[in-house]
Design brief:
With about 180 residues, the protein is of the alpha+beta class. The chain is about 50% helix and about 10% strand. The protein has a three-stranded mixed beta sheet with strand order 1-2-3. The radius of gyration is 18 Å and the shape is globular.
Length: about 180
């Protein structure tokens, strides 16, 4: 049910459709003024994954939580499959539209002391591929993004859905009384 093909790439480019930008679980907790919920997710990630990037396995004291989404291109449902720690380079690849294709991204890269080439080099190293293969994957990701951005998406936060969390708490409370 997907219009993308990752092949055997370990590190893929995942562009979120423009119609659901800023509609992540991170943004949900931020708008709900519940940053402790996001910090709890990050704490559990450190317990589960340690201080290693989920993709390239680089050890880092500074890892960034990244939401992994799947897309049902028929029913237009975006589902949160998981959240994992990524190193700064892998995370920039996931958000390559921002980092390599906007003035804000270019400015932030420069401030961090990186070049676009550093990001592309990381993609190629992790995947054992050429710069030409990177360009093909990037072009395909933007083609898929353009197609998906034509639609409004329903979101399924899966196990991270605040309603799911409430139901779990209610079930635990109910089990105590049984």
């Amino acid at each position: 049910m997907t219009i993308e093909s990752h092949g055997k790439m370990k590190l893929t480019i995942e562009l979120v459709p423009s119609t659901v930008w800023y509609l992540s679980i991170y943004q949900f907790y931020k708008k709900a003024r519940q940053p402790q919920k996001w910090h709890e997710i990050k704490r559990r990630l450190f317990e589960k994954e340690g201080r290693f990037c989920w993709i390239c396995r680089e050890e880092s004291a500074r890892l960034e939580a990244h939401e992994i989404w799947s897309y049902d291109d028929i029913r237009h449902i975006q589902k949160l499959e998981g959240i994992h720690h990524l190193c700064h380079f892998c995370h920039k690849i996931k958000h390559i539209g921002l980092w390599l294709h906007t003035q804000d991204g270019e400015r932030m890269l420069k401030k961090e002391g990186f070049l676009k080439e550093d990001i592309i080099r990381h993609f190629c190293k992790v995947n054992g591929c050429s710069w030409e293969e990177f360009k093909r994957k990037e072009d395909e990701a933007f083609r898929v993004w353009k197609q998906r951005s034509r639609f409004q998406w329903k979101q399924d936060f899966g196990e991270y859905d605040p309603a799911h969390e409430r139901k779990q708490q209610e079930n635990l409370t109910l089990q105590r009384f049984l």
